[in-house]
Amino acid sequence: MPLSRGTGRSDPKPKLSDPYLLVKAYQEPTVCPSCGLVFHKKRWLRDEHILSEVSDVAQKHKCPACRKIDDHYVMGQVIVSGNFFLTIKDEMVNLIHNQEKKESFRNPLARIMSLKFEQNNLVVETTTDNLAVMIGKAIQRSYNGELNINFSNNKIARVDWSRNLEPSKVKRNK
Ligand SMILES: [Zn+2]
């Protein structure tokens, strides 16, 4: 598996302001009925121990990540293009899911909202800008290619990655 180790690397900092973290004041403890995160000491945590301790008394409200998914409020979009990734589709999808797993330890509100093949591209939507940037950088570390990251209108991180094979290699790999 072409997974990067990810050690000694500084985490990307969020660049976009996240309205879902600001508009709603949650009381403590609150449990998200959709995903089971707990709001504890002003943070959303995935913690089974705290969850079992507070679940009887906790308020039940959806966490910011589940609300974004309901509203389809996308904060990151990754578009993988070029004919190279078509030769390693499963590997690419695994790498993307592994980045989600890795980032969720740091921020359990970072999720993949959707991952789908559109024409010859792979399009991934995420609940945070960081996760989209991490996915793009991980793809480039593993497969080189060309990476472009744009923060458009201060609303969404748009991450484009592309790599094309030499025409002769496309034939050989078919
Ligand atoms: Zn949730």
Quote the CATH topology of the largest domain: Alpha-Beta Plaits
Output the number of helix runs.
Answer: 6
CATH architecture of the largest domain: 2-Layer Sandwich
Kindly estimate the percentage of residues that lie in beta strands according to DSSP: 15-25%
How is the biggest beta sheet arranged? Answer: 5 strands, mixed
Which ligands accompany this protein? Answer: zinc ion
Assign an overall shape: elongated
What structural category arises from helix and sheet content? alpha+beta
Unreliable residue runs: 1-10
Rounded mean pLDDT is 88
Query: Portion of residues in helices?
Result: 25-40%
Return the domain count: 2
Calculate Rg over CA atoms.
18 Å
The neighbouring-strand order within the major sheet is 6-7-5-9-8
Question: How many strands?
Answer: 9
CA-CA gap between termini:
21 Å
**The CATH C-level class name of the largest domain:** Alpha Beta
Taken in chain order, the helices and strands follow as: HEEEHEHEHEEHEEH
Key features?
single chain, 174 residues, alpha+beta, five-stranded mixed β-sheet, 6 helices, binds zinc ion
Overview of the structural elements:
It is a single chain. By secondary structure, this protein is α+β, with helices and mostly antiparallel strands. The chain folds into two domains: 19-69, no CATH class; 74-173, 2-Layer Sandwich (Alpha-Beta Plaits), CATH 3.30.70. Helix content is 34%, strand content 25%. It is built from six helices and nine strands. The chain has helices at 19-22, 48-54, 64-71, 89-106, 129-143, 167-173, and strands at residues 30-31, 38-40, 43-45, 59-60, 76-81, 112-118, 121-126, 146-152, 156-162. The protein has a five-stranded mixed β-sheet with strand order 6-7-5-9-8, with helices on one face. A hairpin with a 3-residue loop joins strand 8 (146-152) and strand 9 (156-162). It is elongated, with a radius of gyration of 18 Å. The protein starts with 18 loop residues before the first helix and ends with a helix. The model is unreliable at 1-10 (pLDDT under 50). Bound molecules: zinc ion (ZN).
